[in-house]
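User: I'm curious whether this sequence folds into something compact or stays loose and floppy. Could you predict its structure so I can see for myself?
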Amino acid sequence: MTVRTFQFFALVISALALVPSGAHLFALPNKIGLPPPEYLTVQGIYSGWAILGILWPAGAVLSAVLAVLVRRQDLPFRSATLAALCFVAMLAVFFIWTFPANRATDNWIALPENWETLRRQWEYSHAVNAALALLAFCLVTVSALSWRPE
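Assistant: Here's the prediction. I'll summarize afterward.
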C-alpha cells in the first residue's frame, strides 16, 4: 500500500471517530442537568454505539503505520505519531473514566446512589475524548498535507 492510501484511511477513520465524540460533546449541555428518569431515557439512544469503539484502535494503528511510512520527514512523522498518541489517550480516558461509569450503571439502565458523580464522569470523559478526536484529526491532516513524495 502506498503512503497516500494510508493517509486516506487515517483521515477517514479520524473523521469518523470525531462524529460520535462530537455528538456526545454537543449533547452534554442539554443532558447534564436532566433528572434521573429523563437522563436514563436519553442515554438509551446510545444503545449499539459500542461498535464505534473500533474506530479508536483503528485510528491508533493507522496513524502509527502512517508515522512509520513518513518517518523520513519530520513534520509528517511527528504529526502522525502525535495523532496515534491521541487515539491511545482516548482509549485510556475511556477505560479509566467512561467504562467504569457504564459498568456501575449497567450501561445506564440502573442508577446507583452516586449516579450524579458517574454522570459527570461519563459526560466529561466524552468531552475530553471529543477534544482528543479533533486534535487527532487535525494532526493526521497536517501529516498528510505536509508530506512530500521523495
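Summary: The radius of gyration is 17 Å. The chain has five helices and no strands.
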